[in-house]
Every structure is written in structure tokens, then in C-alpha cells.
Amino acid sequence: xxxxKKTILSYSLFGSEKRFWGTIPFVLMANxxxxxxxxxRFHLDTSARDNSMFKLLDEISKTCSNVEIKVIDTPYTxxxxxxxxxxxxxxxxxxxxxCRDLDAxxxxxxxxxxxxxxxxKQFLIYSMRVYALHTTPLMAGLCGFNCNSLRLYRMxxxxxxxRLYRMxxxxxxxxxxxxxxxxxSRQRNFGWGCDQVLLKNVFCNRSYIGxxxxxRTLDVPIRTAPKKIPGYLPSVMTEHAFNSVNNTxxxxxxxxxxxCDEIVNKFGFEAHPATEIDRSYLIKALDxxxxxxxxxxxxxxxxxxxxxxxxx
Length: 312
Description:
By secondary structure, this protein is α/β, with parallel strands linked by helices.
């Protein structure tokens, strides 16, 4: 990064479903090796904080500076907490934000897309629509934001008196921080698509500002090309652009790169829940010579229940 601000890999963790806890150690190690300068921020509800597995996150956040925990102690309905991972978007100390799912691992493809996005600052947002059923413009678990530039758009709208630029209020043409709260307060029942709908309403609307942002959005369709979305006309990542960042993979530990790609290929695409990660990957990763792997190994050594839960 060219400034001293943080680049955040953002996650939401809520409820008691075991599958999201099951991938955390491997995701911690993989991200540390794929993106050593990025910070992983976990947004938790109180039930996740009270989970017996929480001590793994709590301890690693105290020994590794690239892990942060935010406990959100407010009531919620359904899957509303999936939106929490978008909270760093307007933080002044955040340069880039990447929202991710906890049950998915990084891949060589994702690494190249992220690096291309960061290097090409004309783009404000990117989204990897990696499956035929990904028919919404922005995938909440596979998107990224150039926060520095988006803040300029926000200021432009807030400071300009023209209706075309005005972004205040609770309508779909606004995207000030209050928009998230306004959108949430109008909803009573949230389905799994609540975060996708929010992104669509805020960043892909038909307002003047929305059209400007769309032109500076990088769409990354791969493998089985998703259907085109009427009225959605972003920039599309080309094969040439993709190949221009091949050398970024040289910085990633070769074993971890290979294991992550094996896991992704097994399930078919990056966003598929990696709920069945072979424990052998976790065991092998703990022996890699890096701070995260070493500290996790120490934590596992302290807690028999963690070893039992993760099968090591």
C-alpha cells in the first residue's frame, strides 16, 4: 500500500453454526501468507464471543497484529450480521476493504484479482461473480472497495448542492454511512440476500453518482460466465489484465498456494463453502515457518478442546 492506512479483510461471525468455526485456523494462516500486510477483522455477535472456540480468535488477536476483533452487542434479525463486515467502509484509517465469507479460502485467481484491483486505482469497487447463479451485481463475500476514492465521491455528493450530486437521505440514490442504517431500519425480515440487496441499492442504483460508480466498477466473471444483468454496465476484467499480474503469485508460500487451489477446485468455485477441508491441510499448514502458523500451534498446544474440535 502507498499510505499508512489499513487494508481490511472483513468477516462476520454470528450464531452457533460449527462450520464457520471449523475453517478459521486455516483461513487465518492462508490469508497471512497470501496477504501478509492485510488485517483480518472479525465482526462477532455476543453468542460467537461466548462460544468455547472464541479463545482461539481472542488469543491470536493478542499475538498477531493482523487480527482484530469487533464485538457487536446489538439485537439483530435473521442474517443481518452479514452486513457488519461492511462497517469498515467509511473508516478514515482504512484504505481498502475486502469482504469475505469465513467458509471460503483464498485462491491464486482471487490473489491476482485483488492485486490488479489495488494497482489500478481507477476502479472503486470490484466483484467476483464466479458462478452461473451469481446474478446480482456485487457479491457480498467476494467484493472489494477502494475506500480512499469512495470517500471522495461521498464528499462530492455531500458538499454539492445540485440534486444530481446529492446523496443524503434514506432513498436508494444515497450512499452516505447513514444509508446502511436507513436501509436496515426499513427491513423487518432478512433473508440470505440482505447484504447483496444492500450493495445493489447503494452502489448500483440509477442515480447520477450511481452511474459514475458503475463505470468504475470491475466485474470479474470466471469459469461458467454469469448471466448479464440488465442495466449493469461495469468494466470487465480481461484475460490480458488477468495475466498482467501473474508474478504476484511468486510471493505466496508455494505449499499454501497449492493447497488452497486444491480446495477451491474440489468445490468448483471460490465462494463455495469449504466445510469439508481435509484436516491434513490444517496439520501441514501449522508447520509452515510464519508467525501466524507458529502462534496457532502454541494455542493448540494449550487447549485440548481446540485440538479435539479441529481434529489435530
